[in-house]
Structures are given as C-alpha cells and as structure tokens.
Amino acid sequence: MSKDLRVVFISDMQGHDDEGMKKIARRLSHVLNEQDGFCAEALSPREALSSAQSFDIMHYVGGPTYRSVMYAGWFKSRVRHVKTILSFTNPFWNQFAEFVVRLFPPNCVVVQSRQWQEWAERLNIFSRLMSISGVDIDRFTPVSTQKKIEIKTDLGFPTDKKLVLHVGHLKEDRNVLKLIPLQAGHDIQVVVIGSTTTEQSKSLIAQLEEAGCIVINQYQPAIEQFYQAADCYVFPTVDAQACIQLPLSVYEAMATNLPVVTTRFGGLPDILPSGEGLYYGSFEHDGDMLKMVRSALTGPINTRGLILMYDWPKVGMQLAELYRELVRGSFDG
Fold it and tell me: Is the pLDDT of residue 18 over 70?
C-alpha cells in the first residue's frame, strides 16, 4: 500500500478503562498502530466528525444500536471512500434498527457469536465471526501459590479461604446476587469489584455486603493483582444487554490461569470451548453454582493456554487483515 490506512475506532471515550467497549477501542487503536501500514485513533462519535474526511476505515465498536447504524450511514454518505464496520459487541437491537440497517448497510459487521453471524447472512451483509476482545498476557499472568498468599495478605483478604472473584458493573442485570450462596460456604470468600463507569446500585452493594461478600467499588488501576489473588473466577450474567458479548474480565481471569465458571453468555461458547478449567453452566437450581465452583477448584487448569491466541497484538493482526481485504475489495460490502 502506498500510504498508511487511517482507521478510526468509535466508542464512548470518557472515564477510566474499566468498561469493556472503551477499553477495546483504546487497545485496538494501540495495537493497530504497531502494524505496518496503519494509523489508528480511538475517538468519540462527535470527535470523529471533525476529521471524518481523513479516515479510510470507520469501525464503530459500541452497540450497535439504530443510532450507530445511522451514524455509520451518514459517515459513509459524507466520506464516499470510507469503509464502514459495525462490531456487534453489545447489541441493542429492535425492529427499527433492523429497518435502518437495511437502508444503510455497513461494508462489514464483526460479530461475536454465531447467532449474529446467522442474522448477517440472512440480511446478506458481509460478516466476520471473530473476537475483538483481547487481553494483555504480559500483565495478566499466573503466580505461584506462595505469591498468591502474599498478594491476598497485601490486599487484606483472608488467606485461609478460597477467593471467588467477579469483576464488572454493580447493577442488578449482572445477576451478581447469584454469588451470595457461594459466600455461605465456610471456606469461600466472594470478592466483587465494580466498574466506576456506570451508576452503581446501592441496594445491590448492601445485599452483597450483608451476606459477607467483599465489595470494592472504586477504580483499581492494578486490577491484575486481584485476579492473581483469586482462586476462581465466576461470571453469572445472563441478560444479553448487561455486558459485551465477550467479557474482558473472563479473558483476564483466563490469562491469569484461573478456573472460570460462567453462564453460556453471548459469544463465549462459540469462541472458547469448555474444558481445561473453563466450565459452562445454567445454574437454574440452588447449589448448582457452588457444586461447579468446587469442581473447578480441584480440577485441572489450563485456561491461560486457551486464551493466548487472544493476546491484543494477535487480535490486532486479525483486524489488520480484515481491513486490507476491505480496501482491496476482496469481498463486496
């Protein structure tokens, strides 16, 4: 290519990196800039408008919603040469959004689950099933048993209990109250670390703390230490709109080689097969989650091996190839 391809990742860019979509946008921008032939930025929708003419590829990371579909359509109408991509990271979809996407189809949709891939095929929109969630495998690393005890001590956690961790929004739709029965086990301590990006439910925090769970509701720049202190990670969310399709916290827990107990949420089962310390369950009955957590704590673990292919630079390489295909016209979007 004669010049660098200019790529803009669009998302809400305000606040700390403890929310999935803005973290993805910032990290993808960083790793794409390390690829030959690319110049990338992560901007808010409003910021991108002021320099729209300078971009070759517009990749909307959040949603999508009918608003982001209309935005992509408007962007393309204003900048004729630009290729538009929508990521189905956390879809808020309805009939109106379906109507709008038929009027303003993007060049490509990057989907995170087979469900949305089938949807794209039905509408004859080019799609790529791939993970744009990634993880820093040099930051999120396993530690020895002795080091784990030391980190627990430094963080003020009990060293005579198994630490079960959850990281995410402190909202009812995250289903974190499902963690309370785990706390009833005399040998388990539940720790919940809340995102500061969204409004936190005071009622939810009160219920968790009353049950004995430790709740940390402040931004933690060294979040990797909490994963390293943990013995198991649990992701209990079922509401499709409560989280991005491929939760970064699950990736970070796996990179730390924790056993992970999770619902069959979003695209997780399509991207990450069960086994080697990764457990999927529905947890419909009392005691189901506790039983699976106990199995996870004693079973073989190689979750880090499962997630290494989603190191951020490798995710960036896959995206770079997709962008090259778009610009070469290898497919018709």
Answer: no
Rounded to whole angstroms, the Cα distance separating 220 from 202 reads 19
Write down the pTM of the prediction: 0.93
pLDDT tens across 170-186, in order?
999 999 999 999 998 78
Q: The domain at 145-309 falls in which architecture? A: 3-Layer(aba) Sandwich (3.40)
pLDDT band at residue 21, thresholds of 50, 70 and 90? confident
**Spatial CB neighbours of 52, under 8 Å, sequence gap ≥ 6:** 58, 75, 78, 79, 82
For the chain, give me the number of helices (H) and strands (E)?
A: 14, 12
Residue 301 contacts residue 258 (beta carbons within 8 Å):
yes
Q: pLDDT by residue (tens digit) across 105-147? A: 999 999 999 999 999 999 999 999 999 999 999 999 999 999 9
- The answer to whether 129 touches 117, Cβ cutoff 8 Å, is yes
Report the top-level CATH class of 5-134+311-328. alpha beta
Whole-angstrom Cα Rg for the chain: 21
Residue 15 has pLDDT above 80, yes or no: no
The contacts of residue 237 (CB under 8 Å, 6+ apart) are: 168, 173, 174, 175, 243, 247, 263, 265
CB 38 within 8 A of CB 26: no
Please give the Cα distance from 131 to 310 (Å, whole number). 8
List, by residue range, all CATH 3.40.50.2000 domains of the chain. 5-134+311-328, 145-309
